[in-house]
Protein 1
Amino acid sequence: MDPKWNEDLPIYRQLRDRVVAMILEGVLGDGDALPSVRNVAAEYRLNPLTVLKGYQELVDEGLVEKKRGRGMFVNDGARVKLLKDERRRFIEKEWPIVSATIERLGLSAEDLLKDVGKPGKGDKND
């Protein structure tokens, strides 16, 4: 996990988002243990209650389960659930903004796809 924190968002929420990113990227898979609350708190100099609050959000969302005395573990199907939810959120919240920007700039699908994956494209000198 990245130790840099954004001051505009509560740390517990950023911690939750980082675990979500680890699940989406396959760093954490079904059944994998999350780093312990104590370890995360010590490593990032956070209050253990802050870490626990971030983890509790994951439990509340059904992505993680607590196993008494053993820790927290990624639930089976968490990545699939997250992909579904994140895709829906992107289409409902982010895509309208992206689409409006594309339209405002007069870009075509061809414009957008021709330089995909080419580093340095879109620089002011292109």
Note: The CA atoms of residues 24 and 83 lie 7 Å apart.
Protein 2
Amino acid sequence: MNILISNASADPIYLQIKNQIKASILNGELTPGQSLPSIRQLAKDLQISVITTKRAYEELEKEGLIDSVVGKGSFVSGANQAFIREQRLRQWEEKLIEVTQESKALGISLAELIAHLRMLYQEEEENR
């Protein structure tokens, strides 16, 4: 897991950490049951306060994305797969909205868009 902190970002550091871990969970890079770095280790690696990493982990736990076990650490939650799927669907819908808007701006009809999507989908299936 590679977390990058930007001092130029408008987001506080804990939120940058939370969002990057959340994205890794939602896109499948981090899988249910996989352990996360300890709060202290992550703080040391990122050269930030333990309080900051603790807040990021607490936020992830509130969202049901990770589970923390005293004395054992924090792990990607396996209990909330429906929530993770819902979050991924929301991201997917946002991408489709972008594609739809761009298609309209380019003058691509719905039929052309569907045909192109069908072709890309089939190509992807063949490459598996």
Note: Residues 81-105 form the longest helix (25 residues).
Protein 3
Amino acid sequence: MFDEYYINDDTLLIVPFGKNKSKIYDINGTYIVKKSVFEIVDISCQYYGSSYSGRYIGAKNLLDMDYKLPIIVDEVKETVIFPTCSPKSDSCCWLCVNNIDNYEKLKKNSKVKFVNGLTCELKISLNSLENQIMRATMLLMRLKRRKNSPKKSVIK
């Protein structure tokens, strides 16, 4: 069991694991961390120079949405994660859109396959999952567009 974990480009999925603990699925293995899922998300944002609320406001401005927003955790490596439900919920999981290989419907749930071959069943409908993936992909695309063609300053 670990005290700290920072979301990175190897992160696949973060799920609640008991009271104030999380299970991290990473390309390199699975870890239990003594922090809630939301704490890991916020601490990771801080590690890369912002906070969850700062990343949330940035995503809100880029997407013009404000519900179940994906966030950019690491702007340099373009690591984007999204929640399966309200981030305030104790059952909220976060997925890294960069590492999703495929997904499919399983009755009322969804099965996600990651780039390392790991598959997980999640309590999220296929429609909701696809919507969250689309939002996260849109956020990533808009971030890339802004990084590649910054606004020109006007000096008067």
Note: Residues 126-148 form the longest helix (23 residues).
Protein 4
Amino acid sequence: MRASRTILLSLAALALAACASSHVLTGTPRAPIDPAQVRIYHGPPPGQYEEIAILNTSSGAFTYGEQNKVDSVLQKLRREAASLGANGVLFQGTADGYRSGGVSVGGGLGRGGGRTFSSAGVGVDISPQQKYASGIAIWVANPPPESMVSPPPVLPPEER
């Protein structure tokens, strides 16, 4: 029972670590706001803005499909920016992570107490390739109307 609880807690910690976002402050943070109020800008917004932080995040270890990965990193950038009081993210781009999937085969032979033991195993890694994204958390004093903000990129069906 104790071993299964330890394994469960370890898996939960690993899952939370895989979802982590980070930031480096470059300005003064404000009081946190609702992530739904954070806009994603694919170019500098009209007017003046103040930089608050550089943001970095990843899609997570168990996110499948390109569009789902893009949606995931954009949402995480919004949440991180909102926690710093930024009402915008100047999107810098995405990159694909290292592909580490594969199949492993192992075996063993042992002897103890007058008996011989043998075992074999196969391991398969099916985790998807992660997507990484970066942006700059910004405060826009007079945000433009929603109609002037470009929508997030939508991938063609063959890349989803």
Note: The first strand starts at residue 22 and ends at 25.
